[in-house]
Amino acid sequence: MKRIILLIFCTLLLVSYPIKTSAQDVKKQAIAKALTDYFFLDRENIHVQSNKSIYMNNEQIWFKGYVFHRKKNVPFFTTINVFANLIDDTGKIIESQLLYANIGSFTGNFKLNNTLKSGKYYLQFYTNWMNNFIEDESVVNEITIVNTTKGAGNILAGPDPSKINIDLKPEGGTMLSETANIVGISISDCNHHPLPVKSVDVTDVNRQVIQTIQINKLGYGRITLPAHSGVGYKAVVTIDGVKHDQVFPAQQLKGVALEVNNFSAPDKR
Asked: What are the tens digits of pLDDT across the range 53-99?
């Protein structure tokens, strides 16, 4: 009797094992397919033009937008609804609208009022389809609103030339010791707008230039610091004859050194 029970148990075990393995394989395949399909889904691009960039708070903001198919670069004809938000500089939504899109285009306006203070505001546009993706697919345009009663204040003043942002961001998030580090460099003014800078010097502790980094028109560049780079490295930029510098982040014993290859050409690295 014991032998019969043992034989039945072993038989059931052998039968159930392939089923369990097959179910796991099916689940893995489903996950892989979902991940692949995610990157092949159609994506929308929205381009918006407003009638101007500076408004009095008793005016109306008029705009016209276009919805394009990102891959085909043609109007996204199936898009019907577009959401529009007017947002202040704290991120608070002042007003929201649902706009009708026809054959890839839409128009609308925001009517301002005297309760709005002078400052920077933002127009955000997106579709409900964009909410299916982790990435922020919306488009945001900056505008300026001037309160006619209280005046513009200093919001129309140019950026302070003495305040330059030099941001140094290791690609892995950490400057790791005893290994090479790729560091992104960003140069911008006090309003975080790119500056007309073509290059940045990287100096060592003795203020000797070890490398000159080219900066693109958006204010970005990158450098690879070799392993065992000493402390005291600085990024130095000269604007209107005035030098501005920023010390590279301190090296850490623990962390991740990351290199991202985003070139489309196969012979690029």
From this structure: 999 999 999 999 999 998 888 999 999 999 999 999 999 999 999 99
Return residue ranges of the chain for CATH 2.60.40.1930: 44-146, 165-247
**Chosen CATH of 44-146 out of 2.60.40.1930, 3.40.50.2000, 3.10.690.10, 3.60.110.10:** 2.60.40.1930
- How does DSSP assign the chain, residue by residue? -HHHHHHHHHHHHHHHHHHHHHHHHHHHHHHHHHHHHHHHS--EEEEEEES-SEEETTSEEEEEEEEEETTT-SB-TT--EEEEEEE-TTS-EEEEEEEE-BTTEEEEEEE--TTPPSEEEEEEEE-GGGGGSSS---EEEEEEEEBTTTB-TTTTSPP-TT--EEEEEETTSS-BTTS-EEEEEEEE-TTS-B-S--EEEEE-TT--EEEEEE--TTSEEEEEEPTTPPS--EEEEEETTEEEEEEPPPPBSS---------SSTT--
Least confident span in 22-26, 56-60, 101-105, 224-228: 22-26
Q: Tell me the whole-structure pTM to 2 decimals.
A: 0.59
